[in-house]
Amino acid sequence: MSHESKSKKGLLPRHLLAIESSCDETAAAILSHGEVIESNIVSSQVKIHREYGGIVPEIASRKHLEAISLVVNEAIEHAGIEIADIDAVAITQGPGLVGSLVVGLSFAKAFAMARGIPFTGVNHLAAHLASIFLESDTPGFPFIGMVVSGGHTSIYRVNSMLSMELLGRTRDDAAGEAFDKVAKILGLEYPGGPVISHLATKGDPAAFDFPRAMLPDTPLDFSFSGLKTSVLTTVRRLENDRSHLPVEDLCASFQEAVVDVLVKKLIHAARDNGIYEVVVTGGVAANSRLRQRLSSEAGREGIEAFFPSPGYCTDNAAMVAVAGLHQLKAGIEARVDADVYSRQFS
Ligand code: KG4
Ligand code: ZN
Predict the structure, then answer these.
(1) Nearest ligand 1 atom to alpha carbon 22
(2) CA–CA separation, 126 vs 200, rounded Å?
(3) Is residue 2 predicted with pLDDT exceeding 50?
(4) Contact 232, 167 (CB under 8 A)
(5) Ligand 1 atom at minimal distance to the Cα of residue 288
(6) Centroid of ligand 1 to alpha carbon of 24 (angstroms)
(7) Of 228, 128, 123, which is closest to residue 174 (Cα–Cα)?
(8) Closest ligand 1 atom to the C-alpha of 183?
């Protein structure tokens, strides 16, 4: 059964309300006249989950439920508009944590039904890829797009905002998940990405030779679990030797291994497809070493690299608004029986 319907005519909403609740951020944004992000509110649960060393799904859904009305109201207020001005809603439908997605989708459905306005269900990965269009410097179609986050490491050929072909994905851990797990091994706080990248600036990236899984048979797929295990084994060995843990060197060497793999595979995808514009999105795209190395190494190959600004790399609703806008313009609206989905299928 399809949970989408295609209306005959596309819609350009005057004020689009977008909501994101797939993981541990409750976010809402208003996109006006298809052009201006009037407000972009993100309420993060990071401090709550930090106590547990990672996201606790049950707590995440409850916190979304507490935050969602407040966050939406704040977005409307910041935009200087009234509820009655909103004429469409975009909502993250999946993939993500089911209990968290359900909170956002139910809110969006209730809001849209009460107001008699359309709503559209957005794929979280498509939203990350769309985040590049929040910037002034944008690529043309087709481009090679990568989503590198806590839940995904996937490469797409992006033909349009409504047509994306999956070229490769991780077989095990996502890159952001590897940052989070290595931080835990090193006794650092959650989420691991920001803290590891900060400590890495003071370490030697060549101090430890961690493995880079290049997977020659499927060169656009990723695997980060061997790297994580190698860091764990190294840390155990150093602890057994009672030596002082060189945390900064471990962070720098681990980060370098991740960045090496991401940069090489992205350039490989671009060359293979004859496409010379690459876009990197998702939480790990905020990593400054990745930004710096990809820009220079891609540049040498005549490939231009695009990144959203760091605030648009991590989960937010402005990117959901951009993806939702393209769907509404194409007449793609969700039906009232639309359900969430936890996994990405293509
Ligand atoms: O896109 P995002 O906010 O949520 C998901 O959709 O997963 O990504 C969160 C992930 C976390 O794993 C976090 O450790 C990672 O992005 N991250 C980073 C950095 N900032 C966030 N990883 C590396 N370097 C960073 N600066
Ligand atoms: Zn995300």
Answers:
(1) 6
(2) 30
(3) no
(4) no
(5) 26
(6) 11
(7) 228
(8) 14
Share of the chain above pLDDT 70, in %: 97
Q: Do the beta carbons of residue 68 and residue 99 sit within 8 Å?
A: no
Which tokens go with 250?
A: 């471990």
Q: Under CATH, what is the fold of the domain 4-130+314-334?
A: Nucleotidyltransferase; domain 5 (3.30.420)
Q: Per the structure block, which two tokens stand in for 319?
A: 């990117």
The token pair at 156 is 């797409």
Tens digit of each residue's pLDDT (9 = 90 or more) over 239-267: 999 888 999 999 999 999 999 999 999 99
- How far does residue 150's CA lie from ligand 1's centre (Å)? 5
Distance in angstroms (rounded) separating the CA atoms of residues 315 and 282? 7
pLDDT tens figures, 68-112: 999 999 999 999 999 999 999 999 999 999 999 999 999 999 999
What are the tokens at 2?
Answer: 């399809």
Domain boundaries, the chain: 4-130+314-334, 139-307
Instruction: List the CATH code of the domain at 139-307.
Output: 3.30.420.40
Give, using CA atoms, the residue closest to atom 10 of ligand 1: 150
User: What average pLDDT does range 291-307 have in this prediction?
Assistant: 97
